[in-house]
Amino acid sequence: MPIATVDPATGETLESFEPLDDAKVEARLAAAHAAFGQYRTSDFSERARLMNRAADLLEEDNAFIARTMTTEMGKPVKAARAEAAKCVKAMRWYAERAEELLADEQPAQADVADSGAERAIVRYRPLGVVLAVMPWNFPLWQVVRFAAPALMAGNVGLLKHASNVPQTALYLQDLFRRAGFPEGCFQTLLVGSGAVEGILRDERVVAATLTGSEPAGRSVASIAGDEIKKTVLELGGSDPYLVLPSADIERAAATAVTARVQNNGQSCIAAKRFIVHADVYDAFRDRFVAGMRELTVGDPADEGTDVGPLATEQGRKDLEELVDDALARGATALCGGQRPKEQERGWYYSPTVLADVTPQMRIHREEAFGPVATLYRVADLDEAVTLANDSPFGLSSNVWTRDDSDVERCVRDLQAGGVFFNGMTASHPGLPFGGVKRSGYGRELAGHGIREFCNATTVWYGR
User: Fold this and answer.
1) Which CATH number characterizes residue 247's domain?
2) CA-CA distance, 171 to 167, in Å (whole number)?
3) Which is the catalytic residue, given 87, 268, 335, 454?
4) Which of 10, 118, 185, 444 could staple 463 via S-S, CB 3.0–4.6 A?
5) Is 335 noted as a catalytic residue in this protein?
């Protein structure tokens, strides 16, 4: 894929960028390595001052960077502004809490004495240069939720962003520069995916984090494993959304619409498989389908737009193939199922609900990355849990119920990195985020996220 800004609302290429050559990549690697040697000795108060300054600048730039994200990947502009604001919140959250989260730990005194020590502590120290391979769907948030904890821990970052959001990628580099972070602390590498292996194998790069597709995760994990380097992976998701008899059906259906079409349906944690108990299936279906039909599809720069275009032409083709396969095998489109006739240009797709989905259809197992929902009727909670777990992914899950026994059963048995009751999955700086199975491993955000790229050092003092 060329490194270029292509407006998904029109298909027009607005600006192209030359990838960095080997010499320029080497210069950035050298600068990152040198920056870590200096930055790792900074104290938390200095890092917090810089991070808060970056947050202030991003807050001032909200309208500008929102327009940039909308232009590059089609995010509705009101959602783009909210994404930038969320990044500001995360920066300030880590600036305020990093020192406490990484404070020295005191092992139990009995264990210290039994080890023969007079005293012992566990200290968290930064690892070094971390490579971040990031996706286009949340082009600011995905990066900041890595960068804020990594920089506050004393690491430095190299960003290989998706090739269709180069202006957002360059903005991030400039943001941290303007905030006063030392030269080389955070750099954007405008390179293609073919350059990742060489960068990751470089001995100056000590770890990597990737958010993206399962094939990309496999590639980075295998290279890092060969080099014995730490990785954190956040990959795909096909999150279940369970609606049980005691649920508030009005709220469950209204929230389901937002949960499915957030970010034009292009979110790993968007609810995708709607698993509804037979007792409330008809009532939920009618409300859910009506809500999907009422969405406004159009120009993402328009304040009244609910669903904009998909980010890439290939992304729309992939989604169409999944839907067409399901329809050919007997699925029913309760709404949508095709490109909207009103948009002749750009990569739009109509909000869609598919019923009568069977395991023989690709969409039953594969992630639908766009505004397409699959709807299932189940007889009881056992069937709901079994169907929810019948997926190679395990990122998050949603359950609507007011029955405490349902809650305990779902927390125990749903195979996912999160279980959200009576609401939709969302990430927050204070809550760990990540998945199981083919959705990846490791955690971002909260204390778990800031410690992922730290060396938990045992410090032992003899008598």
Assistant:
1) 3.40.309.10
2) 6
3) 268
4) 118
5) no
